[in-house]
Amino acid sequence: MIEMQDVFKKYPNGVTAINGIDVRINQGEFVYVVGPSGAGKSTFIKMMYREEVPTSGTITMNGVNVAKIKNKKVPIFRRNLGVVFQDFKLLPMKTVYENVAFALEVIEAQPKFIKKRVMEVLDLVNLKHKARMLPTELSGGEQQRVSIARSIVNSPKVVIADEPTGNLDPETSWEIMNIFEEINNRGTTIVMATHNREIVNTIKHRVIAIEAGKIARDEQRGDYGYEN
Amino acid sequence: MKIRTLGRHARESFKSIGRNGWMTFASVSAVTVTLILVGVFFVIMMNLNKVAQTIEEDVQIRVHIDVAANQEDQQKLQAEIEKLPEVQSVKFSSKEQELEELIKSMGEDGQAFKLFEQDNPLNDVFIVKTKNPQDTMKAAKDIGKLEYVTKAVYGKGTVEKLFNFIKASRNVGIVLIAGLFFTAVFLISNTIKITIIARRREIKIMRLVGATNNFIRWPFFLEGLWLGILGSILPIILLAIAYYHAYDYLAPKLMGNFIQILPYNPFMYQVSGILLLMGGLIGIWGSVMSVRKFLKV
Q1: Residue A181: what pLDDT?
Q2: How confident is the model at residue A215 (pLDDT cuts 50, 70, 90)?
Q3: What is the structure's pLDDT at B225?
Q4: Would you call B256 an interface residue with chain A, using a CB distance cutoff of 8 Å?
Q5: Could you count the other beta carbons within 10 Å of the beta carbon of residue B11?
Q6: Distance CA B219, CA B17 (A)
Q7: What does pLDDT average to over chain A?
Q8: Using CB atoms, which residue from A83, A92, A107 is nearest to B208?
Q9: Which residues neighbour A218 within 8 Å (Cβ) at sequence distance 6 or greater?
Q10: How is residue A39 annotated by DSSP?
Q11: Distance (Å, rounded) from C-alpha A51 to C-alpha B209?
Q12: Is the same domain home to B52 and B190?
């Protein structure tokens, strides 16, 4: 469960990105975070995986107050959630297999388990046959699937995705969405910031619209609601 | 940390060396070039030091004993000299031995002195060596004051000049080696830094995926160590071969002048050890320092 209470975020340059947000996301929900550029979507998402720290207020993720986590403990906190980025953030010198395995190596999992689990998730994203390739040898959609595989290999309760289809063509975007649906069906909470109107309007889920750092709209099975 | 994880880090570091081909090459060559310079200079300096030491050790005080002294007086004098804190050894050389040596040292011309064997004008002599060659002057002065000593000779003037020269050149050598060492550290760690800066994105991603700083640092630490060791291999081989030939060529020639240079064994093994250690340490230092910068995300 994710809970934000009275959260404000002001950057050192004086810009207030989040201007008082209260929100609660239950386990197993699929939530779209929408809004115009510069509305504070990214800050909202980044605070969830402790890339940014709120200026005031509390953010609780699975019972942990994210704002209070010390810098040193941040990596350990992140092991309990999966993050998917617009630019994939894959390790360029590692193969597909190694990229996914890395998330398990950091928790010092048994090598046998790593092998089994990595192949399982690569099968889920349909990339088992490309396990030995380097990210640069893959298409954008395939790279994003690797990134998703890496985000779920730890079986996290929450997957956070920041514009995961932002760099992909429409057809590939649908493929990616199908994978997220599949993951959500298994009980994982998904919070996804997106600009993709078609997806939000077609695959209906809860929509949180952020404008000027505040929640402008919070609807179950909502619409995208912007012209783009 | 589990042993298994350490094994994982070692494997990662080897893979990284292979995958970062050109960057690895750049770092290793920086280590190689600087260590060759440091190595050559170090070998030369150590040998000059050895030569200086040999020359210093040859310095001795010749204490001329008054002809009036009987055997008992001589023994007393010897005991007194031995009591001086700077003195290491006292050797007696009778006037007959002295004359013999003089004749020998003059070669053909020396035969003329054979006439003196009947009525030897030389004194009995104590040959005194000091523990520290630098104390020769003081010891000679003190000995000169003792009873039954006509004079205590050590090559006044020449010895002082020699010692000053040796001292100056040692200081210059230390400064040069220190300077070269720092240049090496700076050059190598900078090259490694550049190669790691190119991978800062990688480090950021690792942290995003949940890797602790230590987990990220270890493979880089080991990679730095391998780079340093790889870089020191060529300097060690080159230096070993060069010194082997240089020693073969120079040692017999210098021996004629009673100058010794450091024998191949164990000197070259020591130099190799030093270069290997230096390469490894600088490699580790360079990589750990550069990674540190990117671990504050």
Answers
A1: 95
A2: very high
A3: 92
A4: no
A5: 12
A6: 10
A7: 92
A8: A83
A9: A23, A206, A207, A208, A209
A10: S
A11: 12
A12: yes
Whether residues B42 and B175 share a domain: the answer is yes
Whether A75 sits inside 8 A of B4 (CB atoms) is no
- Count of domains observed in chain B: 2
Helix H or strand E encompassing B125:
strand B125-130
Does residue B165 sit in the same domain as residue B195? yes
Residue B195 tokens read as: 């190669």
pLDDT of B256 reads 72
Same domain flag for B178 and B275: yes
Question: Residues of chain B whose pLDDT is less than 50?
Answer: none
The C-alpha atoms of residue A50 and residue B116 are separated, in whole angstroms, by 101
Alpha helices in chain B (DSSP H): 3-19, 21-58, 71-83, 95-106, 136-144, 158-197, 200-208, 213-255, 264-294
pLDDT digits (tens, 9 = 90+) for B190-221: 877 777 777 788 888 888 888 888 898 898 89
- Asked which of B153, B183, B210 is the last residue of a domain, the reply is B153
Nearest to B8 among A92, A105, A154 (CB): A105
Taking an 8 Å cut-off on Cβ atoms, the answer to whether A91 and B207 are in contact is no
Q: Give the count of Cβ contacts less than 8 A between chain A and B.
A: 53
DSSP per residue, B251-283: HHHHHTTT-----HHHHHHHHHHHHHHHHHHHH
Helix locations, chain A, DSSP H: 41-48, 74-78, 96-105, 111-124, 140-152, 170-185, 197-202
Cβ of A89 within 8 Å of Cβ of B296? The answer is no
pLDDT at position A228 is 59
- Over residues A35-92, the pLDDT tens digits come to 998 899 999 999 999 999 999 999 999 889 998 898 888 888 998 899 999 899 999 8
- In one-letter notation, the amino acid at residue B74 is Q
